[in-house]
Amino acid sequence: MDEASSPDFDRLLAFLERLPAIDLPAGARSIGRGRFANGNWWVKFRLDPDHPLAWRHVQELGFVLNLLSVEERLPTIFKPVSPPPYLNGGVEFLSWIIESTHAEFPPDLCAEWLEGRLPRPVENLAEWKFASEQD
């Protein structure tokens, strides 16, 4: 079995697929994934830049994956990746990547952290509103 298709990716991929602003032109196959030689893993996906929640997703994912706790950070990095802008240009080529920094932190545990800290249910647009935005 290919390491990148191992079952420990299933929960994280299923969670990411439910994000309202995720761009899935090829369905679940739109989310790339893999492992580095050292056992660390990565997932790569696109957000629809025109979706009203796209930047909110970036903010929420960035907070949980990069800075949830100053004293005890998750062993993950969330960052943008892009081909050279002078060749392709535009935000339509911007992708986002989640990388682990410790092989002992599996993708399914990352999904558990995201599920516990992002709006629930994550696909419900109303749950993404801030308290000050509630009707």
From TrEMBL:
Protein's name in the database: Uncharacterized protein
Species assigned in the record: Luteolibacter luteus
